[in-house]
Automatic annotation (TrEMBL):
Gene3D superfamilies: 3.40.630.30
GO MF annotations in UniProt: acyltransferase activity
Protein name as it appears in the record: GNAT family N-acetyltransferase
N-acetyltransferase domain location: 238-347
One Pfam family of this chain: Acetyltransf_1
Enzyme Commission number, as recorded: 2.3.1.-
Keyword Acyltransferase annotated: yes
Keyword set, alphabetical order: Acyltransferase, Transferase
Species assigned in the record: Bdellovibrio svalbardensis
Taxonomic lineage from the root: Bacteria, Pseudomonadati, Bdellovibrionota, Bdellovibrionia, Bdellovibrionales
The organism's place on the tree of life at top rank: Bacteria
Length: 368
């Protein structure tokens, strides 16, 4: 028998720890961050009715979870009528999966939606996708990760795959950053109109706004992208300065105006794994250990203004970051999802000798 509970945060947070095998390398978001995102603090939600989340119990044992929500700005921009699901984690049991997905479908229907699609944790600018194939059995900060059987359960429940994606990993130790510098990149580096700045502890507001402008402009034609408001970018990234390595991010300016940004942070997953994704008495020790090790990193934001694309600026920023990662002793870095239709980003991954980590896609179902 499957029992469903609604908005029981404690069981929602515990779910992946209890439903996945102990040796499966899943790493949860920080508990306090997850709680913020599942509340009206999140500027994504306009009212309490815009989201709900559920946990499933089978025979009294925690068996799965799912978030369901409406992204009004996305529906308005693209003239869609969608609801979204995310954080879909459960045991390999079609009865449990169906019970959770039916809650997401009922939520969508109650809002007059004609389809439901996911995983979105929470928007296209955050963690999205369902893992279809695992090439490397671990993941980085901001990468969705789950056993492959989750995709099989979705298919058994009538969901169809769409929007294929991949994630990548780069071997920093083996890569020579000089290979990124061609004539276009060298011309930019010798042009005084271009300046490059690192992140500092006292320029958070400047960094947030530069990130927002570059993302909104550079991604404006990307599928599913919705321009970020000041409230959204600050909500998502306000704690970044606490964990960032200031040498491994860069803002590119042209005549004093931000035109490109690349934010690469230390991979938080080993730290989160050590503290089981919640603060406790040993957290300071684990954080210090994390800061000292500095073995892996994650690129979380990367965008260039449209009119500066294909000019070589991507290569200059990557050269800056790859050089910094090598100087700082990092061994590898991972990237967030890239659509298989995004040929420019896939070419950039090839230039970095990147290896595919995970193959993903979205899963959708008609509600009519």
């Amino acid at each position: 028998m499957v029992e469903i509970k609604e908005k029981d945060f404690e069981s929602f947070f515990r779910t992946p720890f209890e439903v996945y095998p102990k040796d499966f390398p899943f790493v949860s978001q920080l508990k306090s961050d997850l709680k913020r995102f599942l509340s009206m603090e999140n500027p994504l939600f306009r009212t309490e009715k815009d989201f709900s989340y559920f946990t499933a119990f089978k025979d009294g044992k925690l068996a799965g979870r799912i978030l369901t929500h409406i992204h009004h700005a996305s529906n308005e921009k693209y003239n869609w009528n969608r609801s979204y699901y995310g954080f879909f984690d459960c045991i390999d049991d079609v009865e449990v999966a169906r019970a959770l997905l039916e809650k997401a479908e009922a939520f969508g229907k109650s809002h007059g939606c004609n389809e439901v699609i996911g995983n979105f944790n929470m928007t296209a600018m955050q963690m999205i996708g369902v893992v279809k194939k695992i090439h490397k059995n671990y993941h980085y900060t901001d990468q969705v990760f789950a056993p492959v059987y989750i995709s099989n359960l979705l298919e058994k429940c009538g969901y169809q795959e769409t929007f294929p994606m991949v994630t990548h990993e780069v071997n920093v130790e083996a890569f020579n950053p000089e290979t990124l510098l061609g004539p276009k990149q060298k011309e930019i580096m010798n042009n005084p109109a271009y300046t490059f700045e690192k992140l500092k502890g006292d320029n958070l507001d400047h960094v947030m706004e530069a990130m927002r402008q570059c993302l909104n402009h550079g991604f404006s034609e990307n599928p599913m992208f919705v321009p970020l408001t000041k409230e959204e970018i600050y909500f998502q990234a306000k704690d970044m300065m606490m964990i960032i390595d200031k040498e491994t991010s860069v803002i590119a300016n042209y005549e004093g105006k931000p035109v490109g940004v690349l934010i690469c942070i230390p991979n938080l997953n080993p730290f989160l794994k050590g503290i089981k994704s919640k603060f406790g008495i040993t957290t300071p020790w684990h954080f210090l250990l994390h800061k000292l090790r500095r073995e892996s990193a994650t690129i979380i934001f990367y965008s260039v203004y449209k009119e500066f694309q294909s000019r070589g600026l991507n290569g200059v920023m990557l050269y800056d970051i790859m050089s910094a990662l090598k100087r700082r002793g990092y061994k590898r870095f991972g990237g967030t999802w890239i659509s298989l239709d995004n040929h420019a980003s896939l070419r950039q991954a090839d230039k970095l000798n990147a290896e595919v980590m995970h193959e993903l896609c979205l899963y959708r179902k008609s509600l009519v």
